[in-house]
Write a structure and sequence with these properties.
Strand order of the largest sheet: 1-2-3-5-4
Shape: elongated
Oligomer: single chain
Number of strands: 5
Strand content: 5-15%
């Protein structure tokens, strides 16, 4: 029986706990064998009774060790300890060597009973041990060691068990912390992997839009210009028409690829709908979405950039601004589209603002806007809230 603290859901025995349990068993049976052997070798008057009492104590102890109920139920453990204590008292009556069994009993009582009852049982056991020693003194002088020995043994047992339980609780807290850290690391790895996938999708969408799609669109314009410059009966017109058709088909295919690589937030609706969902799901401050002007379909890189800037700016509001209200406004004008994110939070000094974490700082937002030829501005001061604005010029095909 390992001297380990009770817990609602016992964990499997560790090698240390298993060794402690085996040592306790060996101590109990070794002391019983020593008491019986001394009674036989010394030809004690009641040697037979001593051997019988040792056998009863050993039997009761072995029965409790093998009984599953003793490990699960405090009541069953208390009953077993009462029976074991009664058998030990009988041994103590017939032999002063029964005093030795008190020390392992201390550990059993502290392990199986609640702390208050365990300490009480240790005190009763120590008193019984002292009484047994005094009873076998045959009227001789009783040394202070007869009292100090059991009391010091009980104190050492209490200190040892309490110290072990404190170490066990600390070990459990560290184990739980390590498990939480491992789970958090796995979540972070998954989040980083998903962010990497989304970033790669966005990059591919931009590359396809800025290279293949734009190149095919330019080819169409050049073919159209060539078609207009040729006479109506020119033999090359048929080939130019086929080339324009092939370029148109490939341009449509490239745009399908771009749409397939768009972020999930843009897959099932427009940019305005994605921003509205973003505002509705934002934790913390009340966030309102406003749409101004006549909405129009934007190229995928524009929608991705505006959505990511809105997400980054709103994340900064939630994490740092301590704002009560915030507002995201998407404005469509004749030749440009503007996104404004305004809050009534604590504000900051834009000249000394940190770069942010994970690429979601102000420099990352500015880079997204400038990549598309846009203008990014930040207006804020301590205690006056903040306003983030990005303006992107509309491409010819969207204006």
């Amino acid at each position: 029986m390992a001297v380990t603290p009770r817990s609602p859901a016992p964990r499997p025995l560790t090698p240390v706990s298993r060794v402690l349990r085996l040592c306790l068993h060996a101590l109990v049976f070794g002391l019983l064998a020593l008491a019986a052997g001394r009674a036989v070798t010394d030809s004690a008057p009641r040697a037979g009774w001593v051997v019988a009492a040792c056998a009863v104590v050993a039997a009761v102890y072995a029965a409790g060790v093998r009984a599953p109920a003793v490990h699960r139920s405090p009541r069953a453990a208390a009953v077993w300890l009462a029976g074991l204590g009664a058998a030990w008292t009988a041994l103590l009556v017939v032999s002063p060597d029964g005093l030795w069994i008190a020390f392992p009993l201390y550990f059993l009582e502290l392990h199986l009973l609640r702390l208050r009852w365990g300490i009480t049982a240790v005190a009763v056991t120590a008193c019984a041990a002292i009484g047994g020693f005094v009873a076998h003194a045959d009227g001789g002088a009783v040394s202070p060691g007869a009292f100090l020995g059991p009391l010091l043994g009980g104190a050492v047992a209490v200190a040892t068990v309490l110290g072990y339980q404190a170490l066990y609780r600390e070990s459990e807290r560290r184990r739980e912390l390590i498990e939480e850290l491992i789970a958090t690391r796995a979540e972070l790895a998954a989040a980083e992997r998903d962010a990497g996938i989304l970033a790669e999708r966005e990059r591919l969408a931009r590359e396809i839009h800025d290279t293949l799609a734009q190149g095919l669109s330019s080819i169409q314009l050049l073919l159209r210009a060539a078609e207009r410059s040729l006479p109506q009966d020119a033999p090359a017109l048929e080939h130019i028409g086929r080339a324009r058709g092939a370029a148109q088909e490939n341009l449509a295919e490239a745009r399908r690829f771009v749409r397939a690589l768009t972020p999930p937030d843009l897959e099932h609706g427009s940019l305005a709908a994605a921003l509205e969902r973003l505002c509705a799901a934002a934790p913390g401050p009340r966030v309102r979405f406003c749409l101004s002007g006549a909405p129009r379909v934007l190229p995928t890189p524009y929608e991705v950039a505006l959505l990511r800037i809105a997400q980054s700016a709103l994340a900064n509001v939630v994490r740092h601004a301590r704002a009560d209200r915030a507002e995201i406004t998407l404005t469509f004008m004749d030749a440009s589209v503007t996104l404004d994110v305004v809050d009534d939070g604590t504000g900051f000094d834009p000249s000394s603002a940190p770069s942010g974490e994970g690429g979601f700082g102000l420099p990352a937002m500015r880079s997204r806007a400038e990549t598309l030829g846009g203008l990014f501005t930040v207006e804020s001061s301590p205690g006056q809230g903040a306003a983030v604005a990005v303006t992107l010029p509309l491409p010819l095909e969207a204006s």
